[in-house]
Records
---
Amino acid sequence: MRHKPQTRSKVLSADNGVDFVGDVHGCYDEFMELLKRLGYERSQDGTFRHPQGRKLLSLGDITSRGPHSIKMLQFFIQHIAAGVAEMVDSNHGWKVARWLDGRPVTLAHGDEKVEEEFRVYQQEYGPKKASLLREQSRRLLFSSPSHMMVKKNDKLVAVAVHAGIKDDYIGLESPAVHTFCRYGDVAGTGPDGRPIRREWAKERRGYEPLIVWGHDPRPEPERQNGTLNIDQGCVFGGMLTAYRYPEDELVSVPAKENYSGLADTPLTRYTAD
């Protein structure tokens, strides 16, 4: 077990605009299409930048289930280092980070695809390059903050978080905060093995700041009590969604296919009726 990198800042300026992006899960082609729709352009240093200086903010779960986890890791390693993007912690990100750190974890629910990608990468590029990428990925995932406070003119206007957050937790750090941000308000596991999730957004009493979250896929972006869910299950054949702040605009691109290998996806709960 190696030294855990220091967490990056959990404050992001929205003075030039921010584009929140929902769960990508290795859907790199859809991610690239979404960036183009948002107006990002490749610069001379190879990074994608917005002409107006907007920042890209991922809600986590960039890996697992889909086909291109390594490409997504490489993108955020490069773009966070360049100061043009950020990302918060997430449940799949946390699992992959611990695996990269050599901890005893069971890779399942699509995380095993990340292991396979690294195996193929090492075969193609050699152990030295593979070791470097593993360390860069470990640092990226371990250093991601539990949530991101987005400020405009020094005022807190939005919070980016993977699975949810209580208003009392905003700005704080503790094991309870990290767990809630990664997994949401979970009340055990159902007979089908899926987590039983409490509707934390439905129970929210305040309406500010706006909380933008993912993790629990919905067929369409869902607004409730000052929260906005932008996980539209791209890896399950749904959509990849971005939320543009301060424009209050939603931009989505359709998935090219259902990459998950699951016929009964989380979206089924909302579409079966």
---
Amino acid sequence: MDLTEKNVIEHLGELRKRIIITLISFIIFLTVSFIFVKDIHDFLVKDLDDKLAILGPGDILWVYMAIAGFSAITLTIPIAAFQVWLFVKPGLKKEEQRVTLAFIPGIFILFILGIAFGYFLLFPIVLGFLQSLAGNQFETFFTVDKYFRFMINLTLPFGFLFEMPAVFMFLTRLGIINPQKLAKTRKISYFILIVISVFITPPDFISDILVIVPLLLLYEFSITLSKIVYRKKISLDQPSLHAS
């Protein structure tokens, strides 16, 4: 076995270890979340005027598992980010290790902000708008399955989408991307974000706009942060180049 094959096997073994730790963390958080799932459910439906209906005995189990899974994903995010950092750590300089490690709290905070944006701002607006379309012509009631599926589909993607600034900063610090590349791919990125927005929102123009505008602003904010990180990276790399 040559050195290259040995390095590949070692990297795959390390990657496997990080994935296993992340999965174990998710299972632990899933179990804990399921223990408290009724309390989480009560919080999520506290503003509803009417009780949710169930159409079958399996509906409530699915909802409890979905809520517990939602909570477990949220709690696993910082663990997963830390495992990614540990995986790339050997290839980083001391300064890069310190700087990139500082991104992990930001990744978790941005995920929470994305969830909060989806749940507290977007979800009630879209739900209220759709209810207003029914007016007095239809008798509306929500099943527990449809209600939570709609809520999760509208909020969970924002947790990941709001990671964009931290991910761009992290990749810029590693030298994988730079603000020039992000600016050149702006049109393609806009198109992808618009497509994502259309897929995760109900089929109405208002909902699409409420999602598209924040995501495009978030992309521009990510480019700005990437420029700041890129300038700092250049200034830190220049002394080392002169020293060598």
---
Amino acid sequence: MNDNELLSWLEKAKLGDESAFQLVYQATHQDVYRTVAFLVYNKQDIEDIVNEVYMSMWRAFQTYDPNRPFRVWLHGITVRLVQDWKRKTWRRIRLFERNRRMTCEHFDWTDKAVLQFEMQHELFSLVRQLSYKLRVVVILRYFHDYALEEIADILQIPVGTVKSRHHLAMKELRKRIEMTGGDAYVH
């Protein structure tokens, strides 16, 4: 369902119609889940963040401008919540650093059914190795096909910063492909 088809349901959801909200949820859930899964490794955290995205969306409906693409707005909420989660996690990790060193945690990527197609690509593992700031630009650009200006809007950073991160990410991916001797092509 595209943004234009969602507009009437969004208006109803803004007025408190729970069934309209449920329809918006169903139309966007898989997309939001995959975006979070690309940015976060722990399955439980992914599910918690996705739930928080929809609670935040429900609370923020009154601020949504229907002249702006809905999915850009929703991905903005998603990325900000992932960034908040990463900050909170970093604080927790620092507090429990000694315990973490003693136990070896294994991060389960996510449900194989959700990411099965993406995991088949050679570039997928390379994208996962990028820093968060580079990875989020690559995911928004190539997974969601956002223009650089839209990515700047979602991340609330200057377009020049997005271009710089995009360039650096592509350079890093090319370097890693050369190192692995892979045949994948990054343009």
